[in-house]
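Here is one chain, start to finish.
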Amino acid sequence: MVGETEFMIKKKTILRLISEKGPLIPSQVYKEIEENVLLASALLSEMASEKLVKISSVKIGGSPLYYLKGQEKLLEKHIDRLHEKEKKAVDLLRQNNVLMDISLEPVIRVALRQVKDFAKAFEVKIGEKKEMFWKWHSFPSNELGWKVKEILKTSTPKNYSINSKQKTTQQHKQPQPTQSNINSLQKQQKIVEVKKTLKRETKKKKDDFLSKVLQNLEMDKLRVITQTSLRTNKESEFVVEIPSAVGRLVYYCKAINKKKCNDGDLSSAFVQGQLKKLPVLFLITGDLTKKAKEMLKKEFKGMVVKKVV
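Its structure:
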């Protein structure tokens, strides 16, 4: 069984490869770490969750690119792989650096929301309203103020109205945002995000799935050593003791609540078990995909899969 130290070495190898070659997909990594594509993909996913690497929204053959902070510009060479409408939106934003959302065609507005690698949203307070803008990912934030002013001089957003006082004194003049407006709004957004997070934490949902799994483990006379709810009512993990003819065995247990568990779900649980140097018990509420069943027979023979009832 592969130990944790060896996995750490493989992760360092992956970091070196990405540092030298730029954004990569799993099929460009697996040979270098002497593993299969599935395990390489699982390792990269683990590294992304640990914030060692970032994941792109643009995909190659269905797989995202994994890259390091500071390599965002290198993703631009993959723009041609985007869908036609998304590519059109990206090209328009790259040419203009900043675009006002409400003044764009609906198809462009939708596309910009899909290309998160290249389009970064921000809001500006104009008079009593807040308007959404998009900036090219590498456009300097300290230049947003004058760019927004320039846009407002040449365009009037649809559905935009000024109050009655403004109408009598500034019928043809748009209220102008300042850099302080932008900075202030960004700070307000961060405060709102923190408040939302705190609110979510104080009003946690009851984890019925976790309770159900614990009941199943108790019925099977398994003793829970540790338990963690990874996603409320969706995913949990445990370390358990399983009774056997040769004594109690310790297993890493992953429980997932979904209709279909794929090979990625299996590989993620497998990697965690490898890191903990424990065999794996995989609990599911639904079924395994055809590919997952094949991988279970070929790659993960020691993994035990059981349904939660």
